[in-house]
Amino acid sequence: MSQSTSAWALKYRGATVEDLDPPPALSTKPTELISYALMNAYERDYSHLTVVSEETRALLGYLNIPRLKEMLKNGHVRETDHVDKAMQKFQRSGKVYKVITMDTPLEELEAFFTGGVNGGGPQDFAVVTDQNRRFVLGVATKGDLEEFVKRRPA
Description:
- By secondary structure, the protein is of the alpha+beta class.
- It has helices at residues 9-12, 17-20, 34-44, 65-73, 106-114, 142-151; strands spanning 27-28, 48-52, 59-64, 88-89, 125-129, 136-141.
- A hairpin with a 6-residue loop joins strand 5 and strand 6 (136-141).
- It is globular.
- The two termini are 16 Å apart.
């Protein structure tokens, strides 16, 4: 096993993101109240929500729910504030994003989470899109990958 191959990679055996059966992405708008976004995340037990434009449905950024809870606890935001005050925005110019689709091999997804893809540093989650990045199809987390490895027979 090479240094770039993890112990998990032996269990992937050709599996792709589609095999994780990622839940559909739950999107919110920048003008929605934080309380509404939190309620939606809690109802579905989601740790991340995508934030999309109201006009174009373009992906603008995301809400990291554990980070949002910290921001609320520390008084940086209130539940009556709008999502745009707490969201983490995607940089549009000068940054290359790794496209994660349903056909992405799990080895690539793992590399994305550990920072090996595009040198962007470790990631908490991946937005799963179509190849042209027009539609958000789901969200995959490192936890999803861990669960897949646990369920996969040796």
